[in-house]
Amino acid sequence: MRVVVADDSVLLREGVVRLLEENGFEVVGQAGDADDLIRKVRAHKPDVAVVDIRMPPTNTDDGLRAALEIRAELPDTGVLVLSQYVEEGYALDLVGESAGGVGYLLKDRVADVDRFVDSVRRVADGGSALDPEVVSQLVGRARRDDPLDELTPREREVLELMAEGRSNNAIAEHMTVTERAVEKHVTSIFGKLDLAPAPEDHRRVLAVLAFLRA
Amino acid sequence: MIVVAVVLTSDHTDLRGAVAVLGLTIGWGFIGTGLFAWARRPDNSLGSLMALTGFAFLIAGLSSSNIPAVFTVGAFLSSVYIVTTMHTLLAAPHGRLSQGDRRIVIAAYLLVTLGVLPLYLFFDPSTQCENCPDNVFLIQHSQTVVDVASIVINLIGVVLIVLVLRSLIRRWRVATRAERRLYTPMYAAGVALMIALIGNLVLQSANSNSKAADVAFVISLVPFALVPYLFLGSLVRARLLEGGAVTRLMRRLSETPRAGHLRDALAEALEDSSLELVYWLPERQGYVDFRGRDFELPTEDPSRAIHLVAREGECVAAIIYDALPEAKPHVEAVGAAASLALMNERLEAELRAKVDELRRSRERMLRIGLEERRRLERDLHDGAQQRLVSMALNIRIARAKLNEDPLAADQLLETAGQELDSALAELRELARGIHPAVLTDRGLATALETLASRAPVPVELAELPAGRLPEAVELAAYFVVAEGLTNVAKYANATHATVGIARENGRVVVEVADDGVGGADPEIGTGLRGLADRLAVLEGRLDIDSEQGRGTTLRAQIPCA
Lengths: 214, 561
Hints:
The complex is a heterodimer of chains A (about 210) and B (about 550).
Chain A: E1 2-6, H1 10-22, E2 26-31, H2 34-44, E3 48-52, H3 62-73, E4 78-83, H4 88-95, E5 102-106, H5 113-124, E6 128-130, H6 132-140, H7 153-164, H8 168-175, H9 179-192, H10 201-213
Parallel strand pairs in A: 1-2, 1-3, 3-4, 4-5, 5-6
Helix pairs in contact in A: 2-3, 6-7, 7-9, 7-10, 8-9
Chain B: H1 2-8, H2 16-40, H3 46-61, H4 68-76, H5 80-91, H6 99-115, H7 117-121, H8 143-174, H9 177-206, H10 211-253, H11 261-269, E1 276-281, E2 286-288, E3 294-295, E4 304-311, E5 314-322, H12 327-337, H13 339-401, H14 406-434, H15 437-442, H16 444-454, E6 459-461, H17 471-492, E7 497-504, E8 507-514, H18 526-537, E9 541-545, E10 553-559
Parallel strand pairs in B: 6-7
Antiparallel strand pairs in B: 1-2, 1-5, 2-3, 4-5, 7-8, 8-10, 9-10
Helix pairs in contact in B: 1-2, 2-3, 2-10, 3-5, 5-6, 6-8, 8-9, 9-10, 10-11, 10-12, 13-14, 13-18, 16-17, 17-18
């Protein structure tokens, strides 16, 4: 899988590059600012770009804006944004109309190599990867007559994992249950929340996000 | 004229010429000043009382008549003028009597009319003076009745006069400076008159035909005669003051102004050193003095009167002065004359108030900043720093154990990893508290969404501005919402909150409303205070509407072109 890595901190960038290369990715380009990133993505058309949210030139959310631009221009290129902060706003902006090929993770998550690599791979494959903290913020939001109250603790856990963008298989593995059990939970959740069943993982992420956001 | 003729032709009055001249001067003195004052102030009964005194005094002169009926009426009513004088003195300067004074005056009127009646029913004047005409009221002469009645009447008279004296002295003691300035001579004359009258009555009672009593009576005529002229003097003086005040003010205003100059000019023009001048600042809905310090109007103090100066339908200033009916028209005239100067000095006062407020809020910001830094230092020290130290220790130990006990080393590294995660999480939260990056990056809408989603009650984001606002305004608005939602969570016991940010006539209005218990006190809580300071720097303001049981609405207004 071909990757472009963008981060203005050389130390972190090299770390991520090494980590990805060790796990079988081919890093085709490195960028130190947003413009450089867009140029390299256009040139290399990678499977995924791993982007730090805060980058020059303005050192605000240039990375996020570049990511949105890439998503609009090259829908086949996945974008995984790394952020210093848990901001649902960033994540929701980034996801926009489609949760396919998009990810938003806290920067610290790179330390958990396996999960990080799994997330990059998922995004490169057109799936989604949302940080568990973002998801728990969204799920934990206070609501009037909260329909989430009807979910069992188990179903709640499945909902959160689903919103992170994980497949049934991954959820089953994480919860050490059978995939069949997960499917049952998912059906029950969609029923309770009155959501139309979505066949693909990233579509159900969008459905769940739309529900959580409302 | 008739009275003069009566006196001059009298067969029984000594010193006819002197009595005629005195009667004329004194009588007409009272009548003249009384009519003058009456015309000028029809609502004040003093003028009519003085005129009445003058007529009463002239009627007393009728006792010089040789015609029995006229003589009798004159003699019978000869003391009425003394009571009307008392009445005048007690009613000065407003023309009204207090409850106690009214009783004294009524008693005195009764005494000199009905009270002296027994005297006239049983007294034959021919027993004492041979030329006196007949008493037409006479039933039968009785020396005993006359003696007893005289003593009782004189005694009651003395008591009443003493009461009047006491009342006058008390009045003087509670008089304001300005009142004293105007009415001291009149009060003094009144007191002298009362003392002379007491002397006259006491001597009369001691020896009914003594020369000394007559001397006391003549002496009493001096302060009595002065009363109308002294009153006239204070009237003229008050009127002169009115004209003079504006002239003096104009002269003072043409001088080079300095701070507080206007108050001194007004105080001098109105001759009221206690005068206070304060300015109305619509923005703060309150008064400040020329230094810009807050001022409360004295609404409870009856000795202070307030005159509001308006210009172009807008309140500009308030003049607080010695409450005195005479002063009111002067203050109004002077206030109108000075209104332009007042507008100017108000601007200055407003500026000073603003500078003052800014200085205070800067000091508070500094203090808040220092406290914030101390808190950050403590948080860093107790949190992330401790974790990092412990982590460094665990890594070193793990390294030492790497070869001999790899299992333990792995355990230690796992712990270090967990501590690292916690330290990172803490640092993240700390950084957010210092400055929310999302606000700068994505603007209010996104930042508020995060705030809303973290609140423990459902928060509806109602209206939000479409575009970006100036950074300082966005930050202030963000902190208003953050503080508002924190308070909702802490105190309101609400089920729902609404956040709205709207742009209205050059200002941004931020509102956080909840449906909780209300009753929040804006004075309590450093959070709101700090918020108000933050807003003051932007010339914004913070209002809290929190009626008990009606929820709380926090509303901030920030100027924003």
